[in-house]
## 1
Amino acid sequence: MHAALITGKGEVELREFEAPTPGDGCAVVDVAFCGICGTDIHAFQSGNPYNPAICGHEWSGTVSAVASDVKRLSEGDRVVIGVPSACGSCGPCRSGLGSTCSRVLKVASGRDERAPGHGGFAPQISVGADRLVRTHDNLSDEEAAQVEPATVALHAVRKAGQRLGDIAVVQGAGPIGLVTLQWVKAAGAGEVIVVEPNDARRELALQLGATVAVTPDEVSEVLAERTRGIGADIVYECVGKPQTIQSAVDLARRGGNMCLIGLADSNAEISPHTWLIKEINVTSSLAYTHEEFDIAMGMVGDGRIQLDPMHSATTNLEGLADALTDLGSGQSDQTKVLVNPNWHS
């Protein structure tokens, strides 16, 4: 079996692995689709790959084998990959802070004892069964492969302190920005202004419910008109570039909120004076909790959150490097690219 790994700057290798078998507490999943994440693009561009287990961490599939001690899953179950429930025994859990469980963080970063040697850019993978969530019946495999990033955005919006009627700005209309836009609408925002330089992505943002979609050069003027010069109640930073962190604070009103979702791969230069004078409230969001997967799938399944419009292309393992190059160029016509590891050129 071959799995694709990002091994250096601009490098993807197809490496051979033994077909997986389920160790204690694990299940083997036949992968249907795996999404390309912004972190995969960062790793490909920077030459600093993440742990192999999170190179391709947005996948859906079908359980094909389970360990004898696994009782909650069976062969044939359709599943999506997530994180386990809070362990209940680490320091944060014992302090009543299960949402910041240390074991969950370890699993999410591919550092736990069950972490596989590759991610979902492979036809099969063995993972801890406690990480797997049954796919809702009314989701396609393509939708299911986008549930993980949808849950990232759900977790962020739940944490951010948004109120009914707020004027919100979403910076970036990539996959995370577009699904954040939809959660922001579902959470009762009065208006949602999306900031995106790409014409096609601005149009898609409008289709998915943005009040207006503007370029970075236009946003200050448009926001001033809509808020009488006050600024946004809340700004969601979904670009993941160092320079957009300060611009998110610049767009917020005094006493407003900024939610950091995009993961920048280098340090950012900020203006502490601005942050202080504005009394900005900052939240940040790394991942999600186990139960939020069911929430996300439920709202995708009933149509309140749309994932299919973002899925713009499918490639195979052999085409992964070209897809990463295209998505990282800043000029791509694609939005969400899924990888089918069972399709060969």
## 2
Amino acid sequence: MRTRAWYSRLAKTAAKISGRPATFVLALFVLVTWAVTGPLFHFSDTWQLVINTGTTIVTFLMVFLIQNTQNRDTEAIHIKLDELIRATQGAHNALLDLEELEERTLDEFRARYIALAQSARERRARGDFDTDTPEA
């Protein structure tokens, strides 16, 4: 658990720093400096290797950082949605934690809601309201 907390703090800090305008300006400065030094190094293979290696390493690490940030955000959204479902009178508690269900079960739920949406559109086309609770 301690390792996870350390990684989480590191990932949050790195994400915050990498998203700042100053970080973009720094990266742009590095690229411009690299490009300007091209003639000095006669556009050698080593000169090209420096930028290729640097950008590959940064890209590799950013993939993990982005995935960590996306996982945290997604988990937080799921918890918030679960709380809204739980706290809403008449809502189906069976919809809590849907992301943990098998694909087939999700498809069954999805088909039900597609049918509800189609029915609501048909009622609306006839001039009826589409804001009811079908189970009521």
## 3
Amino acid sequence: MRKVMNALYDGAAALAALCLFGLLIMVLLSIGGRQFHFYVPGTDAYAGYLMAASGFLALAHTLKRGEHIRVTLVLAALSGRWKKALEVWALAFATVLSSLFAFYCCRLSWQSRNFNDISTGSDATPLWIPQIAMGVGAVILAIAFIDELILELRGQRTVPTSEEPLRNE
């Protein structure tokens, strides 16, 4: 099961990387269009859709690698069962919030499909299409938080630490 979960997180991250590549193509098309006097309709809108998709699809992978920003001031002061209790509470709360977020992201996409909602730009894209990536990313993030909570309750959770030194710029 662990291999399946890790494959899900890595697959979402790979899709996020593809979206970033698509974003690069959209930006280059826009720049090239200005330089060579041609217009590709919808490049700005599609760049925005791809940027949002890459952000949402990368959330779970980032969480599992320990790269989300965490405020550990209180956690560092605690030890033993109090530290574990706070970790469980934080993960349970994050699981509830991410599950609600995933539900409403999916609901938004479904409602956009039912209402035939389209973008107001010249591309007239049905909005449920780019919203699917947001819903999928939110669902995978909720799954990742559930996974983290279960691992913490079982005592199997390891919090990865970054090898990079802390930078305060």
## 4
Amino acid sequence: MICYIIFTICAVLCVYPFYYVFINTISANDLSARGKILFWPQGIHFHNYVSALRVDGLALAAEVSVARTVIGTVLTVSVAAFLGYMFTQENMWHRKLWYRMIVATMYFNAGIIPWYLTMRNLHLTNNFWGYILPAVVSPFYIILTKTFVESIPKALPEAAQLDGASVLQIFTRIMLPVMQPILATVAIFSAVGQWNAFQDTLLLMTDTKLYSLQFILYQYLNQASSLSSMANNSSSSSLANAVATTQTATSIRMTITIIVVIPIMLVYPIFQRYFVKGIMIGAVKG
């Protein structure tokens, strides 16, 4: 009984922040700005979402974010799976050298300016692939995958090798199905990273057609104070109840938070059954 009580308390503590943000987005904005909405929504309306979804370029930015998330996740998972498997093959040419060179990039970073100059020299500014290529080879994901592969009994690939299977055949037909838990884990990490990224847009993109959803919402958020002031001025001659739906900096911030979080919350349950197993086995060797 005590365990159920403790788990219930923990669950409430985890869920309440999302619930709090959501009820503040659909409650009267004047009450939300004063911190009056704590447990139940008041003056329910959906003008915040209507206003946010009317932001110029939002639809195109959403397409860019979905495209970079899907393509980036697929390529990152594929590379992590292949390199994680290859680095466990003792007959790979200079296996330890290549592995150490990749791991070293986790600890050494030249900084933003050299990174930007490199991206510019590679013609990845104002280029959609500037979102994808820098994240394809991730040392952390490769380490997780490699550790997971090392936990798989060696008799499995050795049996296939004795039957005449090549390295690629063993990888595609034997190892990939077994690696599903860790690949699902890597997919979640990669998808969340790609979906939430906006700094690369800020540094690399000047073409508005390549703006990501996060960057558009980031700009919208930075203009929250001016937008709310304009809304207040424009509603001065409107009906008395317009004050409740006039946007404030608080309402804009919370609405953007919900818009950003919901897609990832919908994707996570698909991979959840693999997540715990994958991260535990991939992080602990032996």
